[in-house]
Amino acid sequence: MANKRIDEPTGTETVGHEWDGIEELNTPLPRWWLWTFYLTIIFSIGYVIAYPAWPMIDRATVGVLEWSSRGELAKEMSAADQARASVREQLARTPIERLPEDSGLMQQAVAGGAAAFRVNCVQCHGSGAAGSQDLGYPNLNDDDWLWGGDLRAIEYTLVHGIRESDHPETRFSVMPPYEGVFDSAQLDSLVDHVLSLSGNAETNAVGTQLYADNCAACHGPAGSGNRELGAPTLNDAIWLRGSSREAIRRQILQPRMGMMPKWEGRLDPVTIKMLAAYVHSLGGGEDFIEVAEDPEVEVDEQP
User: Fold this and answer.
1) Residue 94 near residue 105 (C-beta atoms within 8 A)
2) What is d(CA 209, CA 191) in angstroms, rounded to the nearest whole number?
């Protein structure tokens, strides 16, 4: 039987256990700890009554408050869906030219377009929209545009695509191949002139004449390009297929033409509008100068 006694220094009864002369005291728990413990028991009983607690075969007990995490999630998702529906309705009613006039709606459009871009566009243009010179996917972060960089022009490109076969409204341009047209010396002279337009080489009389005879009609005498024809600008530091002499030679001899599918019929009009807003926001978007301050002024809808 345990040898229990009262410990004289503390006045506390021992439990009768002793190890190497050290005795264990039967010290009672602090009163605050006991009350806390009792309160947790009372709270747990109330929780079991109020909330789902006891698991059953296909569900848990409902609880008198009829609350559930699934129900709460459904409410939150319903509220989010309603908010998105409201934004989409506003976007559907707002002409894309007037979208920048509502900064809040524009921000919503850009956010929605960013999500759509990650699903539909990163495969070609990359997650950062930097494109690829090797594959001919345009960089969407700069301010160089083949067909125009205002919201309406971007939307038109998204809707109708680039070189979409059997689609009469697609954007279409073609550069003829010059393989066999120039000898090696002429080709070198032409490459020099093309590079000289952006200050990267010295021009020469032969290259200047060849450019004037064969290239200026589309790219312009000074290499400023032509958005009506989708002809790239040649007098800046932005290149679609690369700026090396070899890349330019290859593009002259055997031009590579890119293709972008039309998104009409694949994405709804509001999503396309949001995509246009996102691409416009990447850094090179241009103002639509034809929109007057007076909202009653009609907007020319032609691209």
Assistant:
1) yes
2) 12
